[in-house]
Design goal:
Elements: H1 2-7, H2 9-32, H3 38-46, H4 48-64, H5 71-102, E1 109-110, H6 119-147, H7 164-186, E2 207-208
Parallel strand pairs: 1-2
Length: 218
């Protein structure tokens, strides 16, 4: 890991941006609820997208300085796509828990995980993943144009350190669709336990549905 960070300072920047995302988000929610400083909380939460701006600016500037875009630049593009597409959901996911804990808000309610009831939710999450993939692809394309190297032929993507990320994204989307909407539709339907509160009601205003594998709604 130390060698990866030394050889690719951009990887270190991605890690810093990840930490900064949660620090700014946590500070905004702490100011909004426990400290009752709603204006300060709102101002801090508005700063969350600046983390993404720093990352994409640094990535493009690095390529513009003459660095050949590689693995770390593709990773930055993927991270940017994910945080933009899922950032709002992650912020909402965290906000409802702070509101419940510190402001008497409704308890989080889990989204349905199987059967027809789960399909709309899973399709929405898959749609966010598609948006993340599109954003990552656009950033990778922008880096290619800034570098002036041109888009490699599709059969060469697997050998290209930057464009190989597009193949990884395609594999992730395929598995996401199979184990998301398709799995929910075809998998066994679990009956809710008595008194689980899974039926409609006033507490169902917010679903407990963070995207898989990540910490982050923007």
């Amino acid at each position: 890991m130390n060698d990866l960070l030394t050889d690719n300072p951009l990887v270190l920047l991605i890690a810093v941006c990840e930490v900064a995302f949660w620090v700014v988000l946590g500070a905004g929610l702490l100011a909004r609820y426990p400290l009752r400083r709603r204006r300060l909380g709102a101002a801090l939460l508005l700063c969350v997208p600046l983390v993404d701006l720093v990352l994409v600016s640094a990535s493009l500037a690095d390529v513009a300085r003459g660095t050949s875009p590689g693995f770390a630049h593709g990773l930055a593009a993927v991270y940017l796509g994910f945080t933009v597409a899922f950032g709002h959901s992650l912020m909402r996911w965290a906000d409802v828990r702070f509101a419940h804990r510190f402001a008497g808000g409704p308890a989080p309610v889990k989204a349905p995980r199987d059967g027809w009831a789960a399909v709309p939710h899973e399709l929405r999450e898959f749609g966010k993943a598609v948006v993340a993939a599109v954003i990552a692809g656009v950033v990778i394309l922008a880096m290619t144009f800034v570098d002036g190297s041109g888009i490699p032929p599709a059969e060469a993507w697997g050998e290209d350190p930057l464009w190989s990320w597009m193949l990884r994204i395609g594999v992730v989307l395929a598995f996401w669709f199979i184990f998301g909407p398709i799995w929910a539709l075809l998998g066994p339907v679990k009956k809710p336990a008595p008194g689980s509160g899974s039926g409609p009601g006033p507490a169902a205003a917010q679903t407990d549905s963070p995207p898989p594998g990540h910490h982050s709604a923007r």
